[in-house]
Amino acid sequence: MADDFLHTTLGKTGLPVHRVGLSATYRPGRDTICRAIDGGINYFFCFGVDTHMTRTLRDEMHGRREKFIVATGAYNLLLGHPNIKRTLEKRLRQLRTDYIDVFMYLGVTKDKQFPPELIERFHRLKDGGKVRFIGLSTHARKFAGRLAAEGLADVLMVRYNAAHRGAEEDIFPFLQPHAPGVTSFTATRWRRLIRRPSKAKWPADGPVPTPGQCYRFVLSNPAVHVCLMAPTNIRQFEENMEEILGGGPLDPDEMDFMRRFGDAVHHTKKKLVG
């Protein structure tokens, strides 16, 4: 698959991937998931409790498992680490599949929650063939940057949007030479990037980004291989995809606008211009 705005390779995994991935955080329904599959999306993030996604994938993957990249994992229980093998077996049963493409440690907020011995346990999961690649989701950017620099994760799932751009300094510069895959979440910052902030932070008559612009902001950064979308219904999904497909990468003026709006949402002290 040739690289373009919406297609690339998921880092060192070598997996060809559509750069828009689907998460069922807001339970979008079977029709939305099937519409995404029909549109070429092949990266799906599953929680295990998101029954819409799990049930749909296990039906749609039947007979064509190789067409899908399934990411899931075990949740961080702070310092009480879960039984990751048991969780893996549960996810395999739920999805009725023989393997998980990307198995992650989810919700890491501090480096001590993912110590070397636990990292090693995750890597050993690949030995039996039931896990192809391992990774983690985290808000601890500097820790993620260190894992990237040391080649300790195949895939990193991190927050990145116009209001939270710290990954540009703490993670993205450290991706080489090990080249882990990078997936991002909260492109709309839990929808705050598509709402007007307070007048003190943004002019009352100033423009407000669309969801499509938020996704295009993330996708305009080549360091991000997959930007997760979490629509609530098929209408939202189709509207977002129409704008992404029609707009492509942000031009310089749009990028400047998104960064200034992101600063306003993030409550920075930078001077804002309408």
Layout of helices and strands:
Layout (H helix, E strand, L loop, with lengths): L6 E3 L6 E3 L1 E4 L6 H9 L4 E3 L5 H10 L8 E7 L8 H12 L4 E9 L7 H9 L6 E8 L2 H10 L4 E5 L7 H4 L10 E5 L25 H9 L6 E4 L4 H14 L4 H14 L9
Parallel strand pairs: 3-4, 3-10, 4-5, 5-6, 6-7, 7-8, 8-9, 9-10
Antiparallel strand pairs: 1-2
Number of helices: 9
CATH class (first level) name: Alpha Beta
- Cα-to-Cα separation, first versus last residue: 41 Å
What is the subunit organization of this protein?
single chain
H/E series: EEEHEHEHEHEHEHEHEHH
CATH superfamily: NADP-dependent oxidoreductase domain
Enumerate the spans where pLDDT stays under 50 for 5 or more consecutive residues.
269-274
Helix content: 25-40%
Q: Can you name the CATH architecture?
A: Alpha-Beta Barrel
Shape: globular
Strand % is 15-25%
By CATH, the topology is TIM Barrel
**Which structural class do the helices and strands define?**
alpha/beta
Structurally, how many domains make up the residues?
A: 1
**Overall mean confidence score, pLDDT:** 92
**Total beta strand runs:** 10
Query: In order across it, which strands form the biggest sheet?
Result: 3-4-5-6-7-8-9-10
What's the story with the biggest beta sheet?
8 strands, parallel, barrel
Rg (C-alpha, Å) = 18 Å
What this model shows, in words?
- This protein has 9 helices and 10 strands.
- The strands form 2 sheets. It has an 8-stranded parallel barrel. A two-stranded antiparallel sheet has the order 1-2.
- Helix 7 (211-219) links the parallel strand 9 and strand 10.
- It is an alpha/beta fold and 274 residues long.
- Mean pLDDT is 92; it is low at 269-274.
- It has helices at 30-38, 51-60, 84-95, 116-124, 141-150, 167-170, 211-219, 234-247, 252-265; strands spanning 7-9, 16-18, 20-23, 43-45, 69-75, 100-108, 131-138, 155-159, 181-185, 226-229.
- It is globular.
- It has one domain: NADP-dependent oxidoreductase domain (TIM Barrel), CATH 3.20.20.
